[in-house]
Design a protein that fits this description.
- By secondary structure, the chain is α+β, with helices and mostly antiparallel strands.
- The chain has one domain (2-206).
- It is 22% helix and 36% strand.
- The chain is built from five helices and 13 strands.
- It has helices at 2-21, 66-75, 128-131, 134-140, 175-179, and strands at residues 25-26, 37-45, 54-63, 79-80, 82-85, 90-95, 97-99, 101-108, 118-125, 143-145, 158-160, 165-172, 199-206.
- A five-stranded antiparallel sheet has the order 5-3-8-9-10, with helices on one face.
- This is Lipoprotein.
- It comes from Leptospira dzoumogneensis.
């Protein structure tokens, strides 16, 4: 009887923690000195697959080291489980700074019965400097899971400079888009056409 009661209490505690952890969350950013602001804009593009009406930023975290990144993703993310609708991008004002490591995870589900969910993960890491030459670095930039696109980036993590606008777009793509790609399987360990609807991530900086 006591064991059953303990198990019941433990199960209830776990369920409470899980439900709380999936509440939309944006970390409170400390006051930023005038002129030091950076705008992070995260957008959802469903132009090819309009039945996907909303995506969720399941995680956005930054770190000084790989271990710091993992820790922050677990207990101190910048964003977690935040919904973003098409044509209603999220805008976040953050301070300038340099982060050698960053991670963004996106997820979307269609309103159509039987449709697959879509997801992609982008890692920003200074470690690419060690493994890619300058040409490859400009072409590949970050490690992608679930994305069919090539991000153009400088392979130095995330560098936020004052008054810049950093735009990250998650786009769900259809089969006609996939048919136009020859080597897309080289950019994702997830078997596209399997459990997930293919997606791509684009990243740009406006100065």
């Amino acid at each position: 009887m006591n064991i059953s009661l303990k198990n019941r209490i433990l199960l209830s505690s776990v369920l409470i923690l899980l439900s709380c952890s999936r509440e939309p969350y944006i970390k409170q950013i400390p006051a930023i000195s005038p002129g030091k602001e950076v705008t992070l804009k995260i957008d959802f593009d469903n132009s090819l697959m309009p039945e996907y009406g909303e995506m969720v930023i399941t995680k956005f975290c930054l770190g000084r080291t790989e271990q710091d990144l993992d820790r922050n993703c677990e207990i101190d993310p910048i964003i977690s489980y935040y919904p973003v609708k098409s044509k209603e991008p999220m805008r976040l004002i953050i301070p300038e700074g340099y982060y050698p490591y960053g991670k963004m995870t996106f997820w979307a589900r269609s309103s159509s019965f039987g449709s697959r969910s879509s997801m992609a993960v982008a890692y920003f890491s200074k470690d690419f400097e060690k493994t890619l030459d300058k040409k490859d670095c400009k072409l590949k930039g970050v490690s992608l899971e679930g994305s069919v696109s090539i991000l153009r980036y400088n392979c130095k993590g995330l560098i936020f400079r004052s008054k810049e606008v950093h735009l990250v777009t998650f786009r769900v793509v259809d089969e006609s888009y996939m048919d136009g790609l020859i080597l897309y399987t080289a950019f994702t360990p997830i078997p596209l056409g399997g459990d997930y609807q293919a997606a791509e991530i684009s990243y740009s900086i406006q100065k």
